[in-house]
Specification:
73% helix, Arc Repressor Mutant, subunit A, Rna Polymerase Sigma Factor, Chain: A, mainly alpha, single chain
Length: 182
Amino acid sequence: MDDERLVGCFRQGDHGAFGELVRRHEPRLFRVCLRITRDPEDARDALQECWLKAMTGLAGFEGRSQVSTWLHAVATHVALDQRRLKERLPDPVATSEMDLLLPALPGPAEQVVGREYCRRLLAGLSPAKRSALILHYALGLSYKEIADLQGVPLTTVQTRILRGRRAFASLAEAAPAGLRAA
């Protein structure tokens, strides 16, 4: 079945048709987003936003171009918007600011070791994951507040926090025993 028919099926309520469009076009659209954002995580975020826009925009798709061309344009615009936003806004949680945000630990010795350990683990995360984790866990911001602050969809924040927690745990497990916090 060609893309235009899949769009027609999706418009009639067949959500499997949209899944087929995703399966067909996601690899190419991911490469488009990656080329523009220059960061795999940002590219995944842009691609996620692209599919959300595509899902809502297909109702108004007029067929003046091929579906693949239209999806390419959506992905390009979303990725460019994301890159512009990222270039305009500094990382809200730079590594030098981590000391202010990390929670206090029981005693002076544990504080030094634990803070340095957490700092190293956090520094190993991408800026997007690191800032989402710190904004949520250290500053207590809700997912919605983080989404508003960073100008990204709520689902992007949820994904960043989930992936950030997983990456943080992986880094902690991989750390040599001598570096682990007491």
